[in-house]
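Workshop exercise sheet. Pairs work together: one partner reads the sequence aloud, the other fills in the structure field after running the prediction. Swap roles for the next sheet.
Pair: D.N. / O.F.
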Amino acid sequence: MTASIQKIWVIDQTDAKLTIKDFLQKKQGFSRRLLTAMKQDGGKFLINAEDSYITETLQVNDQLTVIFPEEASGSIEATEMDLAIMYEDEDHLVLNKPAGQACLPSMNDRQYSLANGIQAYYQSTGHPATVHIVTRLDKDTSGLVLIAKNRYVHALLSEAQKKNQIHRIYETIITGEMNPAAGIINAPIARKKTSIIEREVNWRDGKEAVTDYQTLSILSGASLLRVQLKTGRTHQIRVHFSYFGHPLLGDDLYGGKTEVISRQALHCAEIEWLHPFLNKRIKLNCELPLDMTACKEHLSVNQQ
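Structure field:
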């Protein structure tokens, strides 16, 4: 039998006299949609271990338990694979995604995305939820990916992401040298009208896109940068550096050369977020993968 996902709160003076519904919506970030799903799919609300209606009023020292319904896995097939787990607790999973693997299934690949592997992992561990990827990466970008282990936490982390409260730092190898060596790129991005994939800097129709960068080392005809996104536009790092004449090495979509590395030299090296229940920050780091390390070393040798 699979264990149910549940959350428990002890009610203090501040929240006494609120109904269960108001407490969950106003104090714990429950959406109306989530509460409706709870009702329709068999979720439960318990006050001091007794079944309760959502309209009941909470008292000081009441223990409120919310038992979430089991989530349907949808159309994601389970595919056994080795996952590089960097962190896990009952609410979060952080994986180191290899380059060349999509985060989600596509028309062309229904079985070998990261989500397929997570689904198999959940089945093997008896975790009763579907896959909720919070911080997606492009197929050919490697590095840290944050996954919420239930839909409630997914909603909380998605809200944090909208407010730019999930911080991700990337390392990338670009063509040439940035001048100045550190700075901020602020150039709006939109989808290219002639493509469903490509994005471009578009000063008229683009959405705000801000990228903070710092040069870590100068290589032969290239530079290793540390990059932090202030906004989360599709292909933002790739588009911004290409626009200023410094495309990422290996990024043939945006003008990068593929002689030394065959995919965009981009890696999510660090992620940091506030744990929604423990009220502490979690920060994880992840070293450059072998292909980017080899690329960097090759260009360092050439420089000497």
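Discussion prompt: The chain is about 20% helix and 30% strand. What would you look at next?
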